[in-house]
């Protein structure tokens, strides 16, 4: 059984807190936990806009707080994001995520992230084997 306290991670495990342009993510579960997915609590700053395309990962996201929108760049469809809304990027969908208010999201990635990933220029993370090759 794995038990983790969000507040303790934030206070004493900086390697599990990742920050980038106008967002931060607390990595509650990572690849080395051997669960088959990773689990994160992610904060997107009010007024921020992000283009992502997870070519090597599937992601599911549940909105816990805030207001924003997601636009599927393949179809042009935009969907409102509010507490209780979940979206799943089941086709490695290239998308734009906008935070009208601070968004607090619970996110799962498969395959799980290691915690060493950074967004590449195209908005994706490297595939897990690419990270292994560089280590």
What does this structure look like?
This protein has 135 residues and is mainly β. Helix content is 10%, strand content 41%. The protein contains two helices and ten strands. The chain has helices at 6-12, 128-134, and strands at 17-20, 23-29, 38-44, 49-52, 58-65, 68-72, 78-81, 86-89, 95-99, 103-110. A six-stranded antiparallel sheet has the order 1-2-3-10-5-8, with helices on one face. Strands 4-9-6-7 form a four-stranded antiparallel sheet, with no helix packed on it. The longest helix has 7 residues, at 6-12. The chain is globular.
Rounded radius of gyration (Å): 14 Å
Task: Estimate the strand proportion.
Answer: 35-45%
Number of strands: 10
Going across the biggest sheet, name each strand in turn. 1-2-3-10-5-8
What spatial form do the alpha-carbon principal axes imply?
globular
What descriptive keywords fit this protein?
single chain; 135 residues; mainly beta; 6-stranded antiparallel sheet; 2 helices
Short synopsis of the structure:
The protein is mainly beta. The protein has helices spanning 6-12, 128-134; strands spanning 17-20, 23-29, 38-44, 49-52, 58-65, 68-72, 78-81, 86-89, 95-99, 103-110. The longest helix is centred in the N-terminal third of the chain and has 7 residues, at 6-12.
What's the SSE blueprint?
Elements (H helix, E strand, L loop, with lengths): L5 H7 L4 E4 L2 E7 L8 E7 L4 E4 L5 E8 L2 E5 L5 E4 L4 E4 L5 E5 L3 E8 L17 H7 L1
Antiparallel strand pairs: 1-2, 2-3, 3-10, 4-9, 5-8, 5-10, 6-7, 6-9
């Amino acid at each position: 059984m794995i038990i983790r306290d969000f507040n303790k991670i934030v206070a004493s495990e900086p390697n599990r807190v990742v920050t980038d342009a106008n967002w931060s993510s607390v990595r509650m579960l990572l690849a080395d936990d051997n669960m088959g997915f990773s689990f994160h609590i992610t904060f997107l700053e009010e007024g921020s806009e992000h283009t992502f395309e997870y070519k090597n990962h599937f992601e599911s996201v549940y909105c816990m707080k805030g207001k924003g929108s997601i636009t599927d760049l393949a179809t042009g469809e935009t969907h409102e994001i509010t507490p209780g809304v979940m979206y799943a990027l089941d086709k490695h969908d290239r998308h734009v995520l906008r935070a009208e208010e601070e968004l607090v999201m619970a996110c799962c990635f498969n395959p799980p992230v290691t915690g060493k990933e950074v967004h590449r220029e195209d908005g994706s993370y490297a595939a897990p084997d690419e990270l292994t090759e560089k280590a």
